[in-house]
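Checklist before submission:
- one chain only
- standard amino acids only
- sequence pasted in full

Submission:
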Amino acid sequence: MNLRISLSIILASLSNSGCSVPQSADVREAGFVEVNDIRFDSHLREMAAEEHFTGAALVMREGKIVHAKGYGAATSGRANHADTRFHVGSITKQFTAAAILQLVEKGVLKLDGSINVYLPQKYQSSKWNAVTVHQLLSHTSGITDYAVTRDYYDVVKGFCLGDTVDGMIAEAMAKELEFAPGSKYSYTNLGYTLLGAIIEYQANTSYGEYIKANIFAPMGMTSSQIHVAGHVLAEDEAAGFRWSEGQAKHVPDDVETLPVTAPDGGLITTLADFAKWSRIFSGEAQTILSQESIKLMSSPQIRIGNGGPLDSMGYGLYVGDRLIGHGGLIVGFSSQFVIDRETDSLIVVFSNDASGNPQLVTFGLLTLLLAPG
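Returned file contents:
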């Protein structure tokens, strides 16, 4: 089978309802050990050989682990395992969206309220009076994104430090909106930076502490954290790499790419923790969000029109007729997850290779999972 998958193959697989359910383990059981299925392992080894994939991958069906395994090197002296921790970039955005919806449920915020009502005064702009919380969540605000480089940036390994966020927001405050709020879609990282500022100001705590107390703790995500200034690589954490064609190996990633703020890309997590989180989209009992809020997150808020299986935007999630998902790309790391709601299937790919193609890996695994048994 050619696993350089075309969209037509993906959609054909998704239309098949006669797929088998492999032998599996329950993600809610104590611990998270490697589970190996030769079909998925063969694809991942092929991706390692052809696409230089390095990282960890998870395949689940109906809450059961079908495949969970690490590939390649976490650092120069350690291998990746199923329980290795990874930076996952913009997959963070759904957690920021969930935090905002918690504050909506508490009556602190309104989705149709102006962001100027909820931002600290230093971040309020007269140009943003008509921009709503909903529009930040759905990437329809018209606010321009932050740049790749600026003289005032203080960025270490892609993560913004010091007064960089203040500078980013101040620069955006001075610019005209790119379009009338709500009139079109334009993916904007800064929108989620602003949502993080709203969370901090309205909850009177740091973004990382809010997420830890209100999402990680109640969801049992004990191996997850938000990247903050002074972060030191832990023993169970992957370092970031990219593939060097010239050296024919993975090398530490030092390529300057779009920087990251905590609310738009600062999550560090594991396959197991993300699996716990993802069950909220399967209707399992939990205490952090109402089903109404989860439906808002995972329903189309605006159509992107890319013609793919994830052709609309929800809140922090790309949404299709039956799929939801999101990817992430930061210095040294790339990631992708997808949930097929019709078969209650989850695919997660975390990679410590910024030059890789986690979408190819992910949809290859999904195609295999949904193929006739």
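Reviewer check: Residues 1-8 have pLDDT under 50 and may be disordered.
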